[in-house]
Amino acid sequence: MRRYARPHRRGSGAAGIHPPDPQTAAARTDAPRPRTLSGVQELHDAPLAPLTTFRLGGPATRLVTATTDDEVISVVREADDTGTPLLIIGGGSNLVIGDKGFDGTALVIATKGFTLHGTRLELAAGEVWTDAVARTVEAGLAGIECLAGIPGSAGATPIQNVGAYGQEVSSTITEVIAYDRRTRETVTLANADCAFSYRHSRFKSDPERYVVLRVRFDLEDADGLSGPIKYAETARALGVAPGDRVPLATARETVLKLRAGKGMVLDPDDHDTWSAGSFFTNPILTDDEFQAFHARVKQRLGADAEPPAYPAGDGHTKTSAAWLIDKAGFSKGYGTGPARISTKHTLALTNRGNATTEDLLALAREVVTGVREAFGITLVNEPVTVGVSL
């Protein structure tokens, strides 16, 4: 049986490699071959590049699209029962698929469902996230308005604990309904059971176990106002002080403009958006690591240089991956090949139209090496890698 590496991550665009769980019948060497499932769309030797925002990657041996929770569970169980490697695809905004593609079943979760009762919201995993945000703003509910414009599906959001501009989904998620491949049951996990942290969760740390089906949120009715504006850049753009509230629609529109200015809103005619958004996470350093980093900044950039520093819990400090990349010599637009750094934001690596996955990875490795040599910090990729690694 072919083995596949555990994914490095999960975004904002929900996806993950799911090898057969050794505790299930999937580990049998005499397992039957995949069968054709009734009621689902099925293709063979199917291109995966069009299903990702990078527009990169080779084909899948088999591509199945599920539009109901029952179909999702049937496909997952079939993969487990037959020992077939499984790749879950949501919005495709969090995937780097190798040029050779995926030798197994790729499952596109295309379920729909937007249910609102008072401030309680339930989203099916296949719902388009940015559309759901727009609908909550129209309903006058606060809590996820600053997450507007993030590509991908609702099911991806708890996996990566999606966040931006001072909000993250863990602040409003109450429950996640998922299929547990180990127990072969549908389970409901409360917020406290999801182990949320910065761009991380229980689902990300154990990607082979859970398939997210639905996500429940508790939002805020603030009489048409946003949640308190926490992010300094957003506050400046709005002309308010951090902590102030503004009309919900104004907050959403401002965030969309900020994201568009960085190439972070999908546009098929703009190659700066042919990306996975932020390619690297912001490093979180221990006190000792930050002191060593601080000293290298002074040595490289001068005595007056100060790196970005944000509290990240007891004994930890978060710094900016974008700042590191820029100060290591990789400016906006860096590169001469078909994969380059975005002309709008140093944190986005982009396909200029005819790149391969190997082109992208070569650029990513160059950036990682350059930052490590300059500042002693190893950047970690946000997107899930499929059949490849940095």
Can you give a write-up of this model?
This protein is an alpha+beta fold and 390 residues long. It is 24% helix and 22% strand. It is globular and about 65 Å long. Residues 1-15 and 19-34 have low confidence and may be disordered.
How does the SSE layout of this entry go?
Layout: E1 15-18, E2 41-47, E3 59-66, H1 69-82, E4 86-89, E5 95-97, E6 102-109, E7 114-117, E8 120-124, H2 129-138, H3 157-160, E9 163-164, E10 167-168, E11 173-180, E12 185-190, H4 202-205, E13 210-218, H5 232-238, H6 248-261, E14 284-286, H7 287-301, E15 310-311, E16 316-318, H8 321-327, E17 339-341, E18 349-351, H9 357-375, E19 384-386
SSE string, helix = H, strand = E? EEEHEEEEEHHEEEEHEHHEHEEHEEHE
Share of helix, binned: 10-25%
Give the radius of gyration: 21 Å
Main sheet: strands, sense, barrel: 5 strands, mixed
Number of helices: 9
Class from secondary-structure proportions = alpha+beta
Number of strand segments: 19
Distance between the termini: 24 Å
Strand order of the largest sheet: 1-4-6-3-2
The shape is globular
Strand content: 15-25%
Mean pLDDT over all positions: 91
Low-confidence stretches: 1-15, 19-34
